[in-house]
Amino acid sequence: MEAAAHSHEPVPSRWPIITAFGAGLIPVGLVSSAHGWKQGLGVLLLGLAITVYGASRWWAELLRDRFFGRDAVDAEKRLRTAMALFIASEAAIFASFFAALIYARYHAPAWPPAGMPHFELLVPAVNTFILLFSSVTLHLGHSALERDRRDGVIASILMTISLGAIFLCGQAYEYGFLNGSAFNIKSGIFGTTFFMLTGFHGLHVLLGLIFLNVVYGAVLRGQITPQQHFPFRAASWYWHFVDVVWLFVFTIVYIL
Length: 256
Fold this sequence. Notes:
Layout: H1 2-5, H2 15-34, H3 40-67, H4 72-107, H5 122-146, H6 150-180, H7 188-220, H8 230-255
């Protein structure tokens, strides 16, 4: 009875449902826009905004409820496994995108198909360097955390967030340049696989930035310590995963 009295029950939350609703609007808006519905882009942007806001509130609530409650040690063990399974599921989704791209390339008479643009490597190459360097800055932050250097952790997270934002700006610039060449998601299997794969990865970079911002707030509040820092580690796992996926994207989409 005493053990039960000290158990920490999770607080019911509406944010997972809101986040799932927003995430569901993204493909609806994307498909609608691809089929010529003018409001499709608005639905996509609305879904993206709801997803970003809902995820940030959900993760912040999760940190307060699960990581910093009375059962923080038990919660870390459970969520370590949950985070590993989540990343594995994300890897499976990306694997399906890569499989679709490789299948299309294998059966196409020529790749890129006639009339499709050949990609310039400068912007994606610079983006690759930026994203890899962001993994280095985040790793330095983890080293600073182990030495209990709070200022180093804060500087590391802010630098990583800045580099991730620059990456997204570079991707937006590339999209604008390609759209100026009349190349978009409706440009056959070539355009669909390119924009779905790179766009889905860009969405993951955005979610990673939200995760890092939530952890940054926890660091400022003194909730991340050398003894209890799994939220920082989970954000690092996710960010490094996103970086590794981009290496596959850059190699398969742009170089090969």
